[in-house]
Amino acid sequence: MKYRRFALGALSCLALGAVARGSWLSSSWAQDKFPVKPVKIVVPYGPGGATDIVTRIVAEQMRQSLGQSFVVENKPGAFGIVAIQEMMNAKPDGYTLMTGNVSTNAITPVLVPERLKINYARDVAPVTNLIDIPAFIVVTTTNFAVKDIPELIAHAKKNPGKTRYGTVGAGSYPHFDMAFFAKRAGDLNMVPIHNKQGAAGIINDMLTGDVQVAFLNVASTAAQIKAGKLRPIAVVSPTRLPDYPDVPTMKEVGFPDVGTIAWNGMFAPAATPRPVLETLHRSAVAALTSDAAKAALTKQGFIIAPSKSLDDARQWLASEIDAWKKITAAVKIETE
Known about the structure:
Layout: H1 2-32, E1 39-43, H2 50-66, E2 70-74, H3 81-88, E3 96-101, H4 102-111, H5 120-123, E4 124-132, E5 135-140, H6 149-158, E6 163-167, H7 173-184, E7 190-194, H8 198-208, E8 213-217, H9 218-226, E9 230-236, E10 264-269, H10 274-288, H11 291-299, E11 303-304, H12 310-330
Parallel strand pairs: 1-2, 1-3, 6-7, 6-8
Antiparallel strand pairs: 3-10, 4-10, 4-11, 5-8, 5-9
Helix pairs in contact: 2-10, 2-11, 4-12
C-alpha cells in the first residue's frame, strides 16, 4: 500500500511537472509566435492629425510584416490621459499599444502625474521613437521688420508688453517654448495669444499682424514662407534643414535647449514580456524604413527617427522627461 501511494505520488508529481513545462513552453511559444491575433494601437487624438496619420502609416507596414491586423483606435481627451489609461488597463501582452507625442507622453507625466494613477516612469515602456517634426521660430512680415533672433530680442526689449506670440493654448508646448525663450533671452516681456484652432489659427493671426512671432512646425509654415508672408529666423533641429540652408539652428543662435521637436513615439506597458517588446521594436523600425512609409512620412514633412534599441528608446524618453522637468521648473504657466 505504501509503495502504491508512493508510486501514485510520484506519477502525480511527474504529471504536474509536465503540465508546468507545457505551460512554460506554451507561453514561450506564444511569445515567439507573437502576434497571433490583432493588435490595437490607441491614439490620444481624433482622426486626421499628425499622430493619427503616423500611426496608420506605421500600422499598415507592421501588418504586412507580422501578418496580423493592427487596429487604430482613437481615444482623445485629458491631455492623453484617456489613451494612456486605456493602454495600461489592458493585459501587458503586446496586444494593446499606444502612439503618443511630446505633449501626451512627456509633458503630461511631468505636469499632472497624479492624474495618471500609475508610476509613469516605471509602468510605461517606450517601444521606439517614430518620427521627429522640426519647428521654426517664425515671424510675420506684416508690419514687422525683424529678420533674425538678435533683432527679435532687441525689439522685445525696446517694446515691453507689445510683442505678441501665438500658441495653441495655455500650457501647450509652443506656449512653454516661447516663455522659456523669453526667460533665457533676458526675461523679455512678451504676451501670449492663444488660438484653439491650432497652427492654422496662429498662422492666420500672424498674417493679419495680430501676432508677431511663434514656434510652428516646419510643414505647417512652408506655404506661407514660400509666399514671403512668414519668415523663419531659427529652426529647432540638431542640424540645418536641407530645404532651408540659410536658417540657423537654435544652437547656432545661442539657445541650444530652447524649442520642441514634436516627436511621435510608440509605447507599451512596461510589464510586457521583453521578447514581445523586441518583436514590436523590430517591426516598427522595419515599418518606418520601408519604401512606402518613407514616401508617405517624408511627404508630410516628418523626419524618420527610430530608436536603435529598446534601451535606446528608454534613454530617449527619460531625457525628454528630464528636459520638461527643467522647463516647467524654469517657467511657471497656468495650464488649462
